[in-house]
Design a protein that fits this description.
Distance between the termini: 18 Å
Family: Belongs to the peptidase M20 family.
Protein name: Zn-dependent hydrolase
Largest sheet: 9 strands, mixed
Structural class: alpha+beta
CATH topology of the largest domain: Aminopeptidase
CATH superfamily of the largest domain: Zn peptidases
Keywords: Hydrolase, Metal-binding, Zinc
Number of helices: 12
Number of strands: 18
InterPro entries: Amidase_Cbmase, ArgE/DapE_CS, Bact_exopeptidase_dim_dom, Peptidase_M20
GO molecular function, one term: hydrolase activity, acting on carbon-nitrogen (but not peptide) bonds, in linear amidines
Strand content: 15-25%
């Protein structure tokens, strides 16, 4: 079997007309915005036109497919919400590929023995600090979080959902019992440069990296930039600069080739050109596929910052904002995806995912697998995000083959 690339292209085009901004060529389907909900309504209408069953759950997840809902299903999909000025494929590819796989399988097998469903998950991009749709499906939501979650502008999740006619507490009813799931498979662009630079078509994802996030404060003394001698300063920025130089050593001594440490946001106070910074506030985000190695990296960062603070006469404080443990994909599905890729003769790499995906929550309740295709130059979350159509076709065919193999197992 082969997917119908023209049909997949048309569905992606039709979805991406919603929320498109011609000025910057970006896509604006922010979670629970009007455009996001318009996209969900469009998808349900498209599913009905194909005589598929469809519904939206209390979290805003849109389901579409065929087969009894009370029987173990194969579930495919990804999100259709975007970051501001997002790209063409991020998330949307996985949801539209799921629709295409269902259509292709129905053409070859009018009576499917296994229920096969797709899902467009809600609010995956984290406007409100989580992956709402996948957390809801996997039963990982709490009433307190639902009531307290808000975005960077102070808009509460409960209010954003209410504006779209949704009751935030209904999201607690969206959990799918594990016995109703046979497997979950997601197709996604890599969002990084590895596959593109290595000229490979498929990424067979072995797991999703764990992530820890700190907010660090290095506190010294603000001084006049002209009168304070260099050897008498308590310069918070020099502490930050020294730590940045330590990152390569920390990974070499405590990490692996899959480790990442990033200083992503920096604020200097008082922030004047003629004032020695008295405080540096910055984020540290560390990642690895092994929770013990993440712990080693975090401890090494702490030791380095403590030593640097003493050297520059600074006070060192930090807050651990979050710690998400690594999530391995199902070894059975990893092997199965690899076998389908080899059978098609596509070039591939077994690899981790440094970015978070719906799969990481679904892996806690069922066998879950994740397939990557290349992003040109590694670009994502931007209007110039793109993937070659030949790679889109390859990824959708591997999704098709994997689902077919699971249904026969």
């Amino acid at each position: 079997m082969q997917i119908n690339l023209e049909r997949l292209q048309q569905n992606l085009h039709d979805l991406n007309e919603i929320g498109y901004n011609p000025e910057d060529r970006g896509f604006y389907r922010i979670g629970f915005s009007d455009a996001d909900m318009q996209g969900r309504q469009w998808l349900m209408e498209r599913a009905r036109s194909l005589e598929l069953d469809t519904y939206m759950d209390g979290a805003g997840n849109v389901f579409f497919g065929t087969g009894a809902r009370d029987q173990p299903m194969i579930l495919m999909g990804s999100h259709i919400d975007t970051v501001p000025a997002g790209g063409y494929f991020d998330g949307s590819l996985g949801a539209m590929a799921a629709l295409e796989v269902i259509e292709t399988m129905r053409e070859h097998y009018p009576q499917l023995d296994t229920p096969i469903w797709g899902v467009a998950t809600a609010e995956e991009e984290g406007r409100f600090g989580g992956m709402l749709g996948a957390q809801a499906m996997s039963g990982k939501l709490t009433p307190d979080w639902l009531q307290e979650a808000h975005d960077a502008d102070g808009v509460y999740l409960k209010d954003a959902m209410a504006a779209q006619g949704l009751d935030v507490m209904k999201a607690l009813e969206a959990a799918i019992p594990p016995e109703r799931l046979k497997a979950f498979v997601e197709l996604h662009i890599e969002q990084g440069p590895v596959l593109f630079q290595k000229d490979l078509q498929i990424g067979v994802v072995e797991g999703i990296s764990g992530v820890f996030k700190w907010i660090v404060h290095l506190k010294g003394k603000a001084d006049h930039a002209g009168t304070a001698p260099m050897d008498m300063r308590s310069d918070a920025f020099m502490g930050l600069a020294d730590f940045a130089h330590e990152i390569e050593r920390i990974i070499a001594e405590n990490g692996t080739d899959k480790s990442r440490i990033t200083v992503g946001k920096v604020e200097l106070k008082p922030g004047h050109p003629h004032t020695v910074p008295g405080e540096a506030i910055f984020t540290i985000v560390g990642r690895d596929m092994d929770n013990d190695i993440m712990t080693d990296l975090a401890n090494a960062c702490r030791r380095a910052l403590s030593a640097i603070a003493r050297k520059h006469r600074l006070m060192f404080e930090y807050e651990q904002v979050s710690w998400l443990a690594p999530k391995p994909c199902s070894s059975r599905l990893v092997d199965l995806i690899e076998q389908q890729t080899q059978h098609r003769g596509y070039s591939y790499l077994r690899m981790p995912s440094g970015a978070g995906h719906d799969t990481q929550f679904m892996s806690e309740v069922t066998d879950a697998g994740l397939i990557f295709i290349p992003s040109i130059n590694g670009v994502s979350h931007a209007p110039d995000e793109w993937s070659h159509w030949r790679d889109v076709e390859a990824g959708a065919n591997i999704l098709l083959d994997t689902v077919q193999a699971i249904s026969k197992a």
